[in-house]
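hi! just following up on the protien thing from before. the input was this:
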Amino acid sequence: MSCAPAGQFEAVAHAASVKPVAKAARPQPPADLLNAVEGLGQSFKGEVGISVRDLDEGWTVAFNAERLLPQQSVSKLWVAIAVMDAVDHGKLSLSDPVTVRKSDLTVFHDPIRPLVTKAGYRTTIGKLLELAMTHSANSCNDILLWKVGGPQAIRAMLKRKGIDDVGFGPGEGNLQAKTAGLKWRPEWAGGWSFLQARAAMPFAARNRALKRYLAAPYDGASANGVTLGLIRLKKGKLLSDHSTRHLLDLMHACKTGPQRLRSGLRQGWSLAHKTGTGQELGNLATGYNDVGILVSPDGHRYAVAVMIASTRLPIPARMRLMGDITRAIIRTN
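and the predicted 3d structure came back as:
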């Protein structure tokens, strides 16, 4: 019979008596919310991506949330982050003066257009940012885009700040022209000439162009990628505390899409959000979106993205889906 060397038995006995430390259970999303999101996504007549991330517990509920879908004006959020990042680094100030010229105008929704005279319109970086985020003003956003270095600068910023699966398009005029099967012309600034050129196109040509866009959106992002960016913004990982608060305040003041995600709110809940709306052809609607930060009365936080890539359903049905997602989150909070 052999004996273990002195001290060896004690070491073995001690090791055998130590129990493995159980890993903390990963927080799981509410089953009712999982079922609701899956059911709403499956029953919706069209392609939709849905992502709900709990900022405080760390879980995610998603439906078709990895595919790149059209962002449209949701992408103004990334321009706004780049602007506030430039402010944080002393490269821009919200009080910097800007003169908007007619050549700066783009297409579609543009509340600044009537203000631009032959002499231009004098404003500031901060006012342009406010109009871009609260009224989704296209020309204001495009001016800011070029102030921070253009599309390549936004893409570099997204990569640098770890916002994955979010792309950025070529700027408003170029994006909308390409989506319609056209090439942007400077003389279309202001929009009316662009609308005439688009209306003159054969339906088949526009249809081919729109199908190309939906198959591989030039401004594509996944719903999960968008909510990741929203989480990083809300947690203060993208901007200074002051800039984070300023941008979220603008998102709280958003005037567009009051019957989208916001339609499902209950008393005491708040939403800081950004909408997006794409082109339509016949009864086909594209890029109908709303994304934001939802906060409960007790401070619980959720990042939400509902991105309707394409559908033939009317506007009320699209808005109802978004409100239903908000209602589902609130029911299971």
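The chain has one domain: 29-332.
The CA atoms of residues 96 and 124 lie 5 Å apart.
cheers
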